[in-house]
Description:
The protein is mainly α. The chain has a domain at 30-94: lambda repressor-like DNA-binding domains (434 Repressor (Amino-terminal Domain)).
Amino acid sequence: MAEEDVQAAALADPDAQPLTPEISARMRRVPRAKTLRRALRLTQEKFAARYQIPLGTLRDWEQGRAEPDKPARAYLKAIAGDPDAVQRALERAGSTTI
């Protein structure tokens, strides 16, 4: 098929319409925290408790009501990079006094 034929066939299929800029602008991205939490197979409650993130804050991030600030994004990157090491560090820090 020629490129024009492929484009015409795609446009003729009502279930496979290309995204317009208007539709794309209305779409919501999956927040990174939710993707990370699901990859770790944790509930919101377990993820929040394990990584000491307020549950309401996590829910706000996941539901798009709020965005993690720069330090929170860095923390989420650290969790994504080595979730077990972050958990161990938090456990050690919890048992010591500063």
